[in-house]
Amino acid sequence: MGGNSDVPLIVNGKRLDGRKMDELRPITIEAGVLNRATGSAYLTWGKNKVLAAVYGPREVFPKHETNLYGSVVRCRYMMAPFSTEEHGRAGPNRRSREISKVMREAFENIIIKEVYPKTAIDIYVDILEGQGSTRVAGLTAAAVALANAGIPMKDIPIGVSVGKIENQIAVDMMKEEDNFGQADIPLAIAPASGEIILLQMDGKMTREEFVYALDLAYAKVDEIREKQINALREFFKKSSAAVENEQDNSGLNTIEQQSEPIQQSSEESDAGNEASRNEDSGY
Amino acid sequence: MGKLVIPGDLLLNKPVRNPYTYIKDEKTFAAVVGMFDEQQSKFMPIKASYLPSLRDSVIGMIEEEKPIGYGVNLFSPYHGLLSSKSLRTTFNVGDIILAEVFEISEVKDIWLSRPMKLVGGEIIDVSPTKISRVIGKHSSMLNVLKAGTGSNILVGKNGLIWIKGGDVPKAIDAIQKIVREAHTSGLTDRIMNYLNVTPEMLEKFQRAPQREFY
Fold first, then answer.
1. Do B21 and A154 touch, CB atoms closer than 8 A?
2. Which residues are CB-contacts of B96 (< 8 A; sequence separation ≥ 6)?
3. Within chain B, which residue ranges are assigned CATH 2.40.50.140?
4. Rounded to whole angstroms, how far apart are CA atoms B161 and B141?
5. In the list A113, A274, B11, B90, which could disulfide-bond A70, CB 3.0-4.6 Å?
6. What is the pLDDT of residue B212?
7. Is A250 part of the contact surface with chain B (CB cutoff 8 Å)?
8. What top-level class would CATH report for the domain B3-45?
9. Measured between CB atoms, which of A58, A154, A267 is closest to B8?
10. In what order do the strands lie in the sheet with B27-30?
11. What is the pTM of this model?
12. Å from A49 to nearest chain B CA?
C-alpha cells in the first residue's frame, strides 16, 4: 500500500479481471433467504459471497445496554475461516471488530431508532468468501436484510469502494488491487440524501484524485441500488405469489385458478359488492 | 391496488405522522417496504413488528408469575403485564390468554386487562400488519372465515390467531391465503369463493354484534 508495486494491476489498459476502470464486478442479491431471521439477504459481488441476517426489534440482553428512548443497533461482521485463500482463525479479531463498529455507526444514522424504544436490532454479516471490498459488500447486503426485516429506516444505504491502482482511479477494488494498489476507500452512501455514512481510507491520494474518486463512486450508486430494489421486489413477488405456485404443483382448486389472474375485473365486482353489502347492513 | 415502495421513497408532499414513515422538509417518506395506495394515500407495510395501541386485543402466553401479577409473552418486542389485583382467577405458566391492552406506559410497559383463558385450539402467527386484512371492514373477513369453516376464531392484534373447532386446516389455509394476497383488492369475495360461502350464510354474523370476549 502506498508506493508503486511490482505486481502489474493494469494489463493492456484493463484490470486483472478484464474490467474497465469504472466498471463494477457482477452483483446478485437475494432477499429473505433465512426462515428464522426477521430479515436476511444473500449477496454475491464478483467472487465475494455474503450472508446478512437481521434479528429484532427484540429484547436487549444484557439489560443494562437498554436505551429507553430508542432501539440499540448492534452489528457483527465476521469473516468465515474458510473465506480467504489461507485458512484463518475463527472468531472475532481486531479487523472484524473495527468493521463491525464502523458498520454499526453507518446503520445508526439510517435506522429510525425512536419507533421501537427499549429494543435491540441485531445485524449479523458473515463473509463466506472474501475477495476484496467485503465491508461494502456486507453493508449492501445488510441494508437489504434490514429492509426485508421491516425495520423503519430513512434509506437503503449502498456500499462501494474506490481506489488508486498504478496512478489511476478505479472503482470496486478486488483483492489484488486492494493488496498491491496505492489507495483504497470503502464508502457507504445513503442514496436518497446523498450523504456519506461510512468512509475509510488506506493509502495516499491527492485532493484532486480523491474528488474524482468520490464522483466515480457516486456514479455507481444507482446501479447497486437497482440491484437492492430488485431483490426486495422479487422477494415480495415470491411471498405473495406462493398460492399460485402451490396450485400449479397440486393442480387442485379450479375456482382459484380462475379467480387468480383476473384482478382488474374482480376489482369492479368487489366495489359493487362492497356497496351493496354496506347498504344491507346499514353502515 | 397501490405500488411497492421502499425506504426513502416519497409518499406525500405534506407531513403525515405514522410509525412507518418519516418526515423531512415537510414531506412524507416511506420508512419500510410497503404498498402505497396513491388515491387513498394509504400506506401498508409488508412486514413490521407489533406496536401496541390502546384497546387492542392481543393473544399471549403467561410466561412468569410476579408479585404484582403475571408477565405475558406477546411474541413481539415488548412484554405484557397482567395485574393480579383485579383478577378473580389464577393462571399457570404456559396458559394462553386473550386480553385487552388498557395502558401503555411511556417506557412501553403494556398493561393488560380482561384476560380470557384459551383452552385447546391451534394458534398460527402472521405478520401484525396483515391482521387488519384478516379481520376486514366491520369484521367482514372474519365473518367469512367463521361461516366458511365453522371454527371459533379469535384474532390478536399482535399477529397471533387462535382457531378452535370446525375445519381448522381449512381455516389456516384461508388465513395464509389472505396474508399472501393482503395487498390485492377484492379479497373478501375471493375468500368467499375459496370457502364456498354464500351471502346468506353471513347474515347471522352481521345481525349479531361481534363481542367475542367481553
1. no
2. B59, B60, B61, B62, B117, B118, B123, B162
3. 57-118
4. 14
5. A113
6. 52
7. no
8. mainly beta
9. A154
10. B10-12, B27-30, B21-24
11. 0.86
12. 24
How many CB pairs below 8 Å do chains A and B form together? 117
Record: contact A150-B48, CB cut-off 8 A: yes
The arrangement of secondary structure in A10-240, i.e. its CATH architecture, is: 2-Layer Sandwich (3.30)
Q: What is the pLDDT of residue B204?
A: 74
Asked if B175 contacts B159 with a C-beta cutoff of 8 angstroms, the reply is no
- Mean pLDDT value across residues B18-36: 92
The neighbouring-strand residues paired with A184 are A163, A202
pLDDT tier, A7 (very low <50, low <70, confident <90, very high otherwise): confident
Beta carbons of A154 and B19 less than 8 Å apart = no
Q: Does the pLDDT of residue A167 top 50, yes or no? A: yes
Query: Taking CB atoms and an 8 Å limit, are B189 and A233 in contact across chains?
Result: no
ipTM beyond 0.95? no
CATH code of B122-207, in short, is 3.30.1370.10
Specify the pLDDT at position A45. Answer: 96
Within A191-263, residue ranges assigned H as helices are 207-219, 221-240, 242-250, 254-259
Do B14 and B26 form a contact (C-beta atoms < 8 A)? Answer: yes
**Residues 117-176 of chain A whose Cβ lies under 8 A from any Cβ of chain B:** 117-119, 147-156
Question: H/E/C letters for each residue in chain B?
Answer: CCEEECCCCEEECCCCCCCCEEEECCEEEECCCEEEECCCCEEEECCCCCCCCCCCEEEEEEEEEECCEEEEECCCCCCEEEECCCCCCCCCCCCEEEEEEEEECCCCCEEEEEEEEECCCEEEECCHHHHHHHHCHHHHHHHHHHHHHCCEEEECCCCEEEEECCCHHHHHHHHHHHHHCCCCCCHHHHHHHHCCCCHHHHHHHHHCCCCCCC
Numbered ranges of CATH 2.40.50.100 in chain B: 3-45
For the domain spanning B57-118, the CATH number is 2.40.50.140
What is the average pLDDT score of chain B?
A: 89
| List of chain A residues whose C-beta atoms are within 8 Å of the C-beta of residue B33 | 147-148, 150, 232, 236
Residue pLDDT, tens place only, B58-84: 999 999 999 999 999 999 999 999 998
What pLDDT is attached to residue A270? Answer: 40
pLDDT digits (tens, 9 = 90+) for A110-166: 999 999 999 999 999 999 999 999 999 999 999 999 999 999 999 999 999 999 999
Calculate mean pLDDT across residues A77-92. 93
* The B34-37 sheet, strands edge to edge: B3-5, B34-37, B42-45
Q: Is A191 on the interface with B (CB under 8 A)?
A: yes
pLDDT of amino acid B72: 95
Cβ of B180 within 8 Å of Cβ of A266? The answer is no
